[in-house]
């Protein structure tokens, strides 16, 4: 497969299955300027030998079909074309893929959990395809743990009238490197709900994207991240509105603490000329808890038609409001407990959106553990 062409956008111009169609990043490119390339362990320049061990195990709902297929399976790569060099490297390098299918008009009776476990030993590459046939409904959990240098692509194909809810947890060990692209292709009147939780890893760069194949698609992308000293956690989102009367909403919030803690959030929304009636909004908030932490937040909204239902974005990064702490301390609450309550309040509305109670409790416990450090 060769170089693909897309409508012109100043933000996302090249997509290709071929690694060599993307130059090796230098760090001066807009899409790489925030990422510390030296910490990618060679994923970006072809020097990462695929000798690592990452296992994918699926605990599926009884209505769901799970297959392990070779890379020449015709279903792979149809919904998503890689948009950067690491994504293309992952597509060119994986050997086996996991394919998860929810049959037509079927509602899965419980969440399907995909356990991705890294065992170290070098770089590894992966691919997952999740397909909901028309009118199907499912909840999916992607749970990443262990240690790895890992690059992968995940395709979500949401058929007409289908509803897919995804929770993705990046809960890696402290030395892990993970670069991943999640792409959702939505059919007519399809609904996609994504919740990304990023806590662990030395460097995690997660790129969720959404495209629409017919009117009526509805995408909601939510994220929560907590960055500790020395960690680099990066989220780069793209919602590409190419058809009329679709909706998208993006809400990401993060907290940072410790020297060298670095969060990056890039939110790109493109409304093409033909996408009249689009309704979109994106929001990013960062709570900086200590000195030495840094948050980069860049919302981008590119509108190529004047006929939209709504479009906007907002971004802010700052410290805990002293007045909030004073209010709580004046009522007898110790400083550390007041700080904990403020952070809980900051994340509370997001946590309520996690569909799986066990995952919600696990994330809440992880935030508590971060605050106790």
TrEMBL record:
Biological process terms from the Gene Ontology for this record are:
iron-sulfur cluster assembly
Query: Domain SUF system FeS cluster assembly SufBD core spans what residues?
Result: 121-346
| Entries under InterPro entries matching the protein | Fe-S_cluster_assembly_SufBD, SUF_FeS_clus_asmbl_SufBD_core, SUF_FeS_clus_asmbl_SufBD_sf, SUF_FeS_clus_asmbl_SufD
UniProt xrefs under SUPFAM superfamilies: Stabilizer of iron transporter SufD
Record-linked Pfam families: SUFBD_core (PF01458)
Q: Which NCBIfam families match?
A: sufD (TIGR01981)
Identify its protein family.
Belongs to the iron-sulfur cluster assembly SufBD family.
Spell out the protein name for this chain.
Fe-S cluster assembly protein SufD
């Amino acid at each position: 497969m060769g170089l693909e062409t897309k409508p012109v956008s100043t933000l996302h111009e090249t997509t290709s299955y071929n690694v060599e169609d993307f130059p090796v990043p230098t760090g001066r490119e807009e899409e790489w300027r925030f990422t510390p390339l030296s910490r990618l362990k060679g994923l970006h320049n072809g020097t990462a030998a695929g000798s690592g061990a990452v296992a994918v195990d699926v605990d599926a709902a009884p209505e769901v079909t799970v297959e392990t297929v070779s890379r020449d399976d015709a279903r792979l790569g149809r919904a998503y074309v890689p948009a950067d060099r690491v994504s293309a490297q992952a597509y060119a390098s994986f050997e086996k893929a996991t394919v998860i299918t929810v049959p037509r008009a079927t509602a899965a009776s419980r969440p399907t959990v995909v356990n991705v476990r890294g065992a170290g030993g070098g770089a590894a590459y992966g691919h997952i395809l999740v397909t909901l046939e028309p009118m199907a409904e499912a909840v999916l959990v992607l749970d990443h743990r262990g240690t790895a240098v890992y690059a992968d692509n995940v395709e979500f194909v949401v058929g007409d009238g289908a509803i897919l809810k995804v929770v993705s947890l990046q809960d890696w060990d402290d030395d892990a490197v993970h670069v991943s692209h999640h792409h959702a292709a939505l059919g007519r009147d399809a609904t996609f709900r994504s919740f990304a939780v990023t806590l662990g890893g030395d460097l995690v760069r997660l790129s969720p994207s959404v495209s629409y194949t017919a009117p009526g698609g509805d995408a909601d992308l939510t994220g929560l991240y907590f960055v500790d000293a020395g960690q680099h956690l990066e989220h780069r989102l793209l919602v590409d509105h190419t058809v009329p009367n679709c909706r998208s909403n993006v809400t990401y919030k993060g907290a940072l603490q410790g020297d060298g803690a670095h969060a990056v959030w890039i939110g790109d929304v493109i409304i093409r000329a033909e996408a009249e009636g689009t309704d979109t909004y994106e929001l990013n908030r960062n709570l900086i808890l200590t000195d030495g932490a840094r948050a980069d937040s860049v919302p981008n909204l590119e509108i190529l038609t004047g006929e939209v239902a709504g479009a906007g974005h907002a971004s802010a990064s700052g410290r805990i409001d002293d007045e909030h702490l004073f209010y709580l301390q004046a009522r007898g609450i110790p400083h550390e407990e007041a700080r904990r309550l403020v952070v809980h309040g900051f994340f509370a509305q997001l946590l309520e959106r996690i569909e799986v109670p066990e995952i919600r409790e696990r994330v809440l416990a992880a935030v508590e553990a971060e605050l106790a450090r």
